[in-house]
Amino acid sequence: MTVVEERPAPPAAPPPRPVNRLWALLRNSWRQLTSMRTALVLLFLLAVAAIPGSVFPQRAVNAERVTQYYQQHPDLAPVLERLGGFEVYASPWFASIYLLLFTSLIGCVVPRLIDHVRALRMAPPDAPKRMERLPQHAEDLTRTGAPDEVAKSLAAGLRRRRFRTKVREREDGVWTVSAEKGFLKETGNLLFHFSLLAVLIGVGFGHWYGWHANRLLVGGPDQGFCNTLTQYDDSTLGPRVHPADLPIFCLQLTDFDATFQTTGQPKTFLATVQVTQDNGAAETRKFTVNDPLRLDGASVYLLGHGYAPILKYTDRNGVSQTKVVPFLPIDAMQTSEGVAQFPDINIDPKTDKRDPNLQMGFEGRYLPTAPTDGRATSAFPAENNPMLYLTAYRGDLGLDVGTPGSVYSLDQGQIATGELKNVSGARPHALKLGDTWTLDDGTKLEFVGTREFATLSIRHDPAQGLLLVGAVVGLLGLMLSLAGHRRRVWFRVRPNADLPGSAAARGGSVVTAGGLPRTDYPGFPEEFKAVVKAAEEGTP
Amino acid sequence: MAELSNQLMAAAVLAYLFAMVCYAGEYAFGKRSRVGRAAVRPVEAKQLVGAGGPVTSEPPVADDAPIPPAKRGRGELIGMIAVGINVLAVLLHLGGLVTRGVAADRMPWGNMYEYILSTTFIASAVWIGVVLRRPAVRHLGLFASLALVVMLGAASMVAYTPVGPLVPALNSYWFVIHVSTIIIGSGIFLIGAVPAAMFLIRNGYDEGKRRFPYTLGKHVPAAVTLERLTFRLHAFAFPLFTFGALIAGPIWAEASWGRYWGWDPKEVWAFISWVVYAGYLHARATPSVKRTVATWIALLGFVTMLMNLFGVNLFFEGLHSYANAG
């Protein structure tokens, strides 16, 4: 990323010395890597390497779609997996491109920074001998006044145009004025590139020290949770985060308010929670989709919502149990699927033992607004006509084996082996709110009501502030570097020899001017003309 | 109001088409006046016009001769009319946008259709600004209005969406900041692609190529002018796009989805566009890279923008799925 034209000419080559081939190879490779062409190639590779991440499902974005992809393309998926196709942005090849790019960037901007600091401290160089060779020049401007006075006034005029100036006295009573402007361009350019580094470091830091977790939180005081890993449905801690480092807080959903448009599109979601932080007093806080709940060391984001039917099962001994079971929405109208499992029922009052073959499971759908035509999909996401369609299973639920299974569906293996039998027929049984369903063995299931649940994402990234500052500073630097132009202007002032008598006595001077834009700057001729005009008229 | 908006947009497209015809007319007549000057008998020139002004068969002798500034030919007049109609088209376009916004009671950039309407409006307004400041680039008008008509046509064909309320996830003031800056940036990138393409054509023409696309370069402004205009438009749009896509976007994403960057397909392609445009600015700042190569990179950047607009909206599934198309 070295801007070749910006660099001062290298000092004269040192005397030849014995060449170490390895050293030469390293040095040449380093020069190659830090060249602007290489940076361009790496930029392109980065752009191309990013493409597969938008074509193939990414595990970090949506793990379920990766599973789907495995089902749809059983042959291709393992190959892609080995190539890192499902984790493009964490893959070694993607990392190697951006690490090379940033190495190239460091190798380029650090020497440039040193050069720039040097240039900032250096006075503008003296006027070239032959001004007429410069892209812009003007000759034979006459001014009254001795050369030194004229030179000083010219310098003052340039300073008012915010040039850095240096006045020098040369032989034969000649004075020169050197002026340079536009250092902000390189300053901005360096600022931009160093901000990119800051952003990269911020991303890495956030990855190491950040954490996030998801939780489905059902309303009600009995369903609250505290910020420990066991309370989460899934969680990811950065490599440097210990579970004990998580901030202490507890959340309980007290109210959830969703409004919908007539089309069924959600209009607003508003969650009301009771928060206890650091074992302090509970406070009520509200948050919504674009406005997360900010806690000390964590933010809670509202991602979605759904319904959790409350089911009361009364077993053969007349003992009843009530469960609140969240059903997961499968479409925009909140048609939801879920399962209620009752493993600890039908306990023999004499032996105090349960019969593992008399466990009950109910699987089915919940429709917040059941359509009048009897279809099993909801017609509206709000609860206008709540209806449960359930199938009852009796037998061994398979929960005692200890293998982790989904809490949103029954163990299909148990159903396949016949350990768990459908006892309600092929058609699911419909239950309205408050209905009680009496099963074939006389046990009862009552649809008591529903509660709402919110799906939450709890996250913390300690580097976000650094990233924001880096990005904003980078943008400012970018604008400076795109808007600025570095250019130099020189004046040579000599005593006017054409006038009769001594120049000093007559007080006349002749001025030659030259200008050099150091970057592509189409407006420079006009600026130079204005500078020369002001110099000629003696007005700044 | 929604109906009025659609009618205004239809009128705007018609006006763009008409402006395009006038620009094309200037193309032909501008040529005729030169040929007329070069030709011995003016009658012959008239016959050429009667025949519809063939574009490619004339000898290129007179082409490089500078036009005397005192003589304002008929071509020039038609060019002025073209600009006038173009201004009218921009006003109609603005009217179409405003009425759509009023009809929906929100900013008119809530779905892909409205996004394209807004982006082309910005492109068009910037074009008018450029042409009013530098009449010398007016010859680009044919290609600028062609690009706009094609984009608007594509918008109504693949993305038309009736007026509707906003998806609630978009209901945030960041919606205004994030989307508007990206629209402005993209609009300028869109109009910047026109001088970029024409620079390449003109440059090829200057190098003596006379095959089809290069023949179009006959009457467009000088290659240096086109290249400089390309750079200035891109250098202006790039920081805006950076702010919209890489600062405002992540801030909103953090508040809404909990993470500032998640490699959603839209984000991936915004990143790709950003990298490619950064590559363009880099290449242009590198003396050893030819200006033609740099300009090809700018055009590649525009292709990635199109991919993000059409490809990602229509074929990929992601969090930015507000296309409502198909």
From TrEMBL, chain A:
Regions that span the bilayer: 39-56, 93-114, 190-211, 465-484
InterPro entries: Cyt_c_bgen_Ccs1/CcsB/ResB (IPR023494), ResB-like_domain (IPR007816)
Keywords: Cytochrome c-type biogenesis, Membrane, Transmembrane, Transmembrane helix
Major site of localization recorded for this protein: membrane
Domain of life where this protein originates: Bacteria
Coiled coil (UniProt feature): none
Compartments it resides in: Membrane
Topology of this chain in the membrane: Multi-pass membrane protein
Pfam family for this entry, one: ResB
Every ResB-like domain range: 36-529
Protein name: Cytochrome c biogenesis protein ResB
Species assigned in the record: Paractinoplanes pyxinae
UniProtKB/TrEMBL annotation, chain B:
Lipid bilayer topology: Multi-pass membrane protein
TM segment ranges: 6-29, 77-95, 115-133, 140-161, 173-201, 235-253, 268-286, 293-316
Transmembrane helix found in the keyword field: yes
Domain Cytochrome c assembly protein as annotated: residue spans: 109-320
InterPro entries associated with the record: Cyt_c_assembly, Cyt_c_biogenesis_CcsA, Cyt_c_biogenesis_CcsA/CcmC
Compartment(s) of residence: Membrane
Entry-linked Pfam families: Cytochrom_C_asm (PF01578)
Principal location class: membrane
This protein's UniProt keywords: Cytochrome c-type biogenesis, Membrane, Transmembrane, Transmembrane helix
Cross-referenced PANTHER family: CYTOCHROME B_B6 PROTEIN-RELATED (PTHR30071:SF1), HEME EXPORTER PROTEIN C (PTHR30071)
This protein's name: C-type cytochrome biogenesis protein CcsB
Organism: Paractinoplanes pyxinae
